[in-house]
Amino acid sequence: VLERMKQGGFTLGGEQSGHVILLNHQTTGDGVLTALALAMIMKTNSKKMSELNNKMKKYPQIIVNASVRNELKDIVLANPEVHAEIAAAEAKYEGRGRVLVRKSGTEALIRVMIEGLDAGEIAADAEILAKFLEGAANK
Is the dihedral of CA 60, 15, 12, 51 positive or negative? Predict the structure, then answer.
């Protein structure tokens, strides 16, 4: 999350798990800091949480893991064919979802996350992309 925030110049980032980083305050997630920031927003806007939450549109999201040996993860992600396949998926969802492909820091996996309007479509596309990554690792 932090890496992508720095790449994009963002000060707020997080994951569905609830891990939130407020980069203008610190570089790690902190639940107490997140709660205080939310309380400040509620007070500043004189709004209840239910009123603030109705502004967010939630998209279906799926994460599919591609099994890739640790020593091959960087090689696979540097492969021009892999870059092209990821770019095609990103272009498909531009403006109506998002694609995130990242290596796991703890397991022999590359994670493929897709958000979009149609749960069936994102599941199928995530599976296809994960299989492509596995195939690139086995070349």
Answer: positive
